[in-house]
Design brief:
Layout lengths: L5 E2 L3 E2 L3 H19 L6 H8 L3 H7 L3 H26 L4 H14 L16 H4 L6 H21 L6 H17 L4 H11 L2
Antiparallel strand pairs: 1-2
Helix pairs in contact: 1-2, 4-5, 4-7, 5-8, 7-8
């Protein structure tokens, strides 16, 4: 989609995706220096060298920007989680444990980037983390391995029930980080 929107010092942005990327990078820069809660649309516009009005052409507000950033990281994270799951495809409990651990300890791959969903940013990011989109990613990842596990072990674990607890475990461990050893011990205790 082509556009003739002016950008910053008068340079043109030729497509909507480029404009969004510039604003998202500016938002990350602001979130790193000021934190999500303290960052305003005006701050993001200033770093991007645009007006507030330009920011609102691309996003409905700060919440929309946060959601877009979390969606990007969610996609990146689940690509890696699928790789982890493939390593343990014959051992569903271990696969599940490793995937939950990875999701709960995931950080953006770029050095120095802010974790948007933990610590001081947790309250601002929380509405965007455990969403239908997250549930769909978990459903895609877990459905076939869970079906196979249920068949092999004569079990009837419900996928939707499992997804609900997985999402809450990930959020819980992101908010209260633990070592991998204590995480594994907690899961083992839960399974008793």
């Amino acid at each position: 989609m082509k556009t003739n929107k002016r950008w910053g010092s008068g340079a043109r942005v030729d497509d909507l995706d480029t404009g969004k990327k510039i604003l998202l990078k500016s938002a990350i820069d602001c979130f790193i220096t000021k934190g999500i809660k303290s960052t305003t649309i005006e701050d993001i516009a200033k770093v991007a060298n645009v007006t507030r009005r330009t920011v609102y052409r691309y996003f409905n507000g700060k919440s929309d920007i946060i959601a877009a950033l979390i969606d990007i990281e969610r996609e990146r994270m689940f690509i890696k989680i699928h790789d982890i799951a493939a390593l343990h495809d014959n051992n569903f409990p271990l696969m599940l444990e490793e995937c939950i651990w990875f999701a709960s300890s995931y950080k953006p791959p770029e050095a120095g980037k802010l974790d948007l969903v933990s610590g001081t940013n947790a309250s601002e990011a929380a509405p965007h983390v455990d969403t239908d989109e997250s549930d769909e990613h978990w459903r895609e990842l877990l459905k076939e391995p869970l079906d196979a596990y249920n068949t092999r072990n004569n079990r009837n674990i419900d996928l939707d029930d499992l997804i609900r607890i997985v999402g809450r475990l990930v959020i819980s461990y992101r908010q209260q980080p633990a070592t991998k050893e204590s995480f594994k011990a907690s899961l083992k205790a839960l399974m008793l």
